[in-house]
Design a protein that fits this description.
The structure is a single chain. The protein is of the alpha/beta class. The protein has a single domain, classed as 3-Layer(aba) Sandwich (Rossmann fold), CATH 3.40.50. It is built from 8 helices and 13 strands. The longest helix is centred in the middle third of the chain and has 15 residues.
Length: about 240
């Protein structure tokens, strides 16, 4: 994976089985967001070798909208402000009425206190936590088969973090979408509220080790990311 002439990701090999949610740890600049961009097909990044497989299909050549139609969904770390477009209108575009369960939609609006955002310009004047809620509510309505979360705990105060965790769980536990996803984080604060089955650590554009998310993050907090290199050298790829 390259941006211009610069290679960023170097032989990343990551498989997420059906009905599993994995977390991806790593310091800033390690390549986590670039990996997400590659999966989603953002044009500024070029896949120089290998395949991105989703539902058994190589999606390397698909556009972003084709990938979304296939079932990918993403919550951005810094979603844009879109003036002149109401949240309600975007929901109608992403999830036409024939695809929506009106009773469930109303219940979710009330459960997550979303009514006050529906007729506002998207993300205009909202706090970090409110922007995350708005983004996740769109995904609740879209019902993606595979959910990608880019730093869902970034810029979110403790008051909103639990609520955001509840929204993520609602998406992942949806009977129509199964329980598939990738949670990218460097603080792991969101993992206090959602379960992930396995964790991976990315450093310098490579995945260095994999293992139990709770144990790995405890070790990283104590010893820093150098722990992962030591663990890999001692035990091989997987770290308990």
């Amino acid at each position: 994976m390259a941006a211009g002439d610069k290679e960023i990701l170097k032989g990343v090999n990551l498989t997420i089985p059906d009905n599993e949610v994995h977390s991806l740890f790593g310091p800033n600049g390690s390549g986590k967001s670039v990996l997400i961009s590659a999966i989603m097909g953002y044009p500024e990044y070029e896949v120089t070798s290998g395949e991105i497989l989703f539902k058994g299909k190589n999606i390397n050549k698909l556009s972003i909208d084709e990938r979304v139609r296939l079932g990918l969904g993403i919550s951005e770390q810094r979603p844009p402000t879109i003036k002149g477009v109401k949240l309600r209108r975007l929901i109608e575009i992403l999830a036409p009425e024939k695809m929506r369960e009106k009773t469930l939609e109303k219940e979710l609006q009330q459960k997550f206190d979303m009514e006050k955002f529906l007729d506002r310009d998207i993300n205009d004047g909202l706090s970090g936590g409110e922007i995350k809620k708005s983004e996740l509510f769109l995904l609740l309505m879209k019902k993606p088969d595979f959910l990608i979360l880019d730093e869902p705990d970034s810029g979110v105060d403790p008051e909103h973090l639990k609520n955001i965790g509840e929204m993520i769980n609602e998406i992942l536990q949806n009977k129509d979408s199964g329980k598939n996803g990738l949670v990218v984080t460097h603080s792991a604060a969101i993992l206090d509220y959602i379960h992930t089955d396995k964790a991976h650590v990315m450093l310098d554009g490579k995945i260095h080790c994999s293992g139990n998310p709770v144990v790995m993050m405890e070790q990283i907090r104590k010893n820093g990311y150098k722990y992962c290199i030591t663990c890999q050298n001692r035990n091989g790829r997987d770290c308990i």
